[in-house]
Specification:
mainly alpha; about 70% helix
Length: about 100
């Protein structure tokens, strides 16, 4: 058991040996990013959006999580919810 703890301690020391700052500096040139760049400004974000556009952006990002067939999953979920709520209402609550 002590050998396992020594091996894990050595592994932790190896992980702590290389700081992330050196890895980031090797991939990015920090001097080049300090200059102001006006090419990265998204002009569409500066214009006021309508309510429909904000709803569409919020829904499209959530629907993208569902995978390759989001419409099928949404239809199946709504169908199952409607059938199960109808069943519960008429089976258990209609006789009250």
């Amino acid at each position: 058991m002590i050998w396992l703890s020594l091996i894990l301690f050595a592994f932790a020391l190896l992980l702590m040996q290389n700081p992330r700052r050196k890895k980031v500096d090797s991939f990015f040139q920090l001097e080049a990013t300090e200059n102001e760049s006006f090419d990265a400004i998204n002009v569409k974000d500066l214009v006021a959006k309508s309510a429909w556009q904000t709803i569409k952006e919020n829904i499209s990002s959530n629907v993208g999580i569902l995978g390759p067939r989001p419409a099928l999953y949404i239809v199946l979920y709504l169908s199952f919810s409607a059938v199960s709520s109808w069943f519960v209402f008429y089976r258990f609550l209609a006789f009250l």
